[in-house]
Amino acid sequence: MIIAYLRVSTEKQNVANQQDEIRRFAESRNLVIHRWVTEVISGKAKVKERKLNGLIKRLHAGDVLIVTELSRLSRTLTDIMAIMGSCLKRKITIYSTKDGYAFDDTINSKVLCFAFGLVAEIERNLISMRTKEALALRRAEGKILGRRKGSYTKLQILIDHRSEIIQSLKRGASIISLCRYYAVSRDTFDRFRVMDARVERMVQRRKQRTLERRQRAERRHDRTLMHV
Q1: How far apart are alpha carbons 28 and 20 in whole angstroms?
Q2: Annotated catalytic residue 42
Q3: 20 with 80, same domain?
Q4: Where residue 18 sits, what CATH number does that domain have?
């Protein structure tokens, strides 16, 4: 089976150019495209999240995958090498029309893959080195590294959903139900309402109304006892 894979990053982009390129390539080699697969997703997206991943898993030895450029497989050389390695291991041929590459089971393809793999390894090492240097610099400047602890993260969830929380309170939702819905503690919610004047006013009004209802209920109870 011969598959043509087309990828664009947004709906606004057109795949027509890729289609024409692959069609001309197939005709020059007397190849018949059995299936066209189009995917709208960023090349930076994880391979596991992409349609391409499932496509490759369904291919068999002897099948062919055609792309216009290797960058259509991914934006990172490391991911490209992983995809190519998976295909070559299963004896799936990859053609890259613009690059002029053909990756199959021949010795030339294996040498080319080795070269790409070496570059990918260098790229990984450089990224790791730059990351370590950046972290060391931030430590030297006295900056706190890493993600803030859970209380901040939970608090940020409430801040991000401020409008929804206010509307829920207006509709009569209890603080306990909101804490359960957003998976936060009562202490975290209390810190959040102190930070937001609107939420604090609504909570105080709710408390006042609850107190007034309780007082009215107590007065009714006392009147009932007086008439007994």
Answers
A1: 12
A2: no
A3: yes
A4: 3.40.50.1390
